[in-house]
Amino acid sequence: MSGRLINILYFAWLRERVGRAHEERDLPDDVSDVAGLVIWLRAQGRNYESAFAVPRVVRCAVNQVFASPDTLVQPGDEVAFFPPVTGG
Question: Can you give the pTM of this predicted structure?
Fold first, then answer.
């Protein structure tokens, strides 16, 4: 382990496609932002590829703050992925 652990949470249909609600991952050194994390996750297997097949429809929060693709991901961060939320 490189000491770059983050906690990843999956909600709604992302949880169903990935097959888990959360996981702790030790990231490779070349993953530094949300976009890189999504690319790396997609390469982790069919379930991840399915969950992140259309990245623009997946929302993300880092440490409970909405994040953009260029938001940095640091060791110890909590990264949550969820579908767009609608109100009404």
Answer: 0.91
Q: Which CATH class is domain 5-70+77-82?
A: alpha beta
Task: Give the CA diameter of the chain.
Answer: 45
63 phi/psi in degrees, rounded to 5: 55, 45
Alpha-carbon gap, residue 60 to 85, rounded angstroms: 11
pLDDT, tens only, 1-55? 457 899 999 999 999 999 999 999 998 899 999 999 999 999 999 999 999 999 8
**HSE-up (13 A, CA, CB side) for residue 28:** 10
